[in-house]
Design goal:
Elements lengths: L1 H18 E7 L4 H18 L4 E5 L11 H10 L3 E3 L10 H4 L6 E2 L14 E5 L2 E9 L11 H12 L5 E7 L3 H11 L5 E5 L9 E2 L5 E3 L6 E2 L8 H10 L12 E11 L4 E11 L8
Parallel strand pairs: 1-2, 2-3, 3-4, 6-7, 7-8, 8-10
Antiparallel strand pairs: 1-12, 5-6, 9-10, 11-12, 12-13
Helix pairs in contact: 2-3
The chain binds fe (ii) ion (FE2) (2 copies).
């Protein structure tokens, strides 16, 4: 009897190991400090955590606002597999002419059709395929976009036959909008990952029908800051209402995200963990 129990436990452990694909999703990269630390650590994390696919949000990777072709190349050459973007997508001049050439990077899928760039990406690990796309929220986000609920329906329908599992990023300000979308998608996708506020939340879990959910994974950048920017200029602007430059902060650098284990047969989440890594004083990245 005891042997039978042990055998079943061993089979379950082997099955979990064989069929579970581990995805690391890192939140908004803010400027060079966040970018350098991601590039320094990504391959090490893949090895140490047995991660198969790494996805990052790169909407603040270039000086805190937007991304460029060369920065996307830098991230990919460091080991990043996929890049998503958000409302800062067009902050860097000329990026609309570069985005079409960047495989592995997608724009928010509910932007107007005329916007250039891929609406989704499909990432591979061996024979496993993961569809990834993001949707912008429509509360407190100043970019024209269509209904995220209708968009996820049409996007899932469009890509479901091309992939074993789907991960969606909810790039939204309002937690109510993200939570509602999480329940709406429970059981239909492997994970709904919230971004944009740059502040990690404590509600990460697997919903009852198998979709991993978190309202926000936080950012990769300075945590001695206001959302990745130097503190004093932001305080001063709140006090006097005058717009000023908000330089990217460079103290207390951390990577923040989540680890999702996906059952590749069911395309749903088997495990979910918040992830955070603080840069030590000895770390070599600038
Ligand atoms: Fe951001
Ligand atoms: Fe954003």
């Amino acid at each position: 009897m005891i042997i039978a129990f042990i055998s079943i436990a061993i089979i379950k452990i082997i099955a979990l190991y064989v069929f579970m694909v581990k995805v690391l999703f890192l939140g908004d990269i803010v400027g060079r400090p966040g970018r350098s630390f991601v590039c320094e650590k990504v391959n090490e994390l893949k090895a140490d955590l047995s991660v198969h696919i790494v996805i990052v949000n790169g909407e603040n990777a270039a000086g805190g606002s937007g991304i460029t072709l060369s920065i996307a190349k830098e991230l990919f050459s460091s080991g990043v597999d996929g890049i998503t973007l958000g409302d800062h997508i067009w902050d860097q001049k000329g990026f609309e002419n570069e985005i079409g050439d960047i495989e592995g990077l997608c724009r928010p899928s509910n932007l107007p059709k005329q916007n250039p760039g891929r609406t989704h990406i499909i990432l591979k690990f061996n024979s496993f395929t993961l569809g990834v796309f993001s949707v912008l929220g429509r509360n407190y986000i100043n970019l024209k976009s269509s209904c995220p609920f209708q968009t996820v329906d049409s996007q899932i329908e469009a890509i479901k036959n091309q992939c074993d599992a789907i991960l969606v990023e909810a790039h939204m300000e309002a937690t109510s909008e993200k939570i509602a979308l999480g329940w709406y998608l429970d059981g239909k996708i492997a994970g709904l990952i919230g971004t944009h506020t740059h502040t990690p939340t404590a509600d990460g879990r697997i919903l009852p029908k198998g979709t991993a959910y978190i309202s926000d994974v936080g950012m990769c950048g300075s945590y001695q800051s206001v959302l990745g920017r130097e503190i004093d200029p932001v305080i001063n602007s709140f006090k006097d209402g005058i717009k000023r430059r908000f330089p990217v902060a460079d103290q207390d650098i951390r990577l923040s995200g989540c680890l999702i284990g996906i059952d590749e047969k069911r395309g749903l989440a088997e495990s979910f963990q918040r992830f955070e890594l603080k840069k030590s004083a000895k770390s070599s990245s600038a």
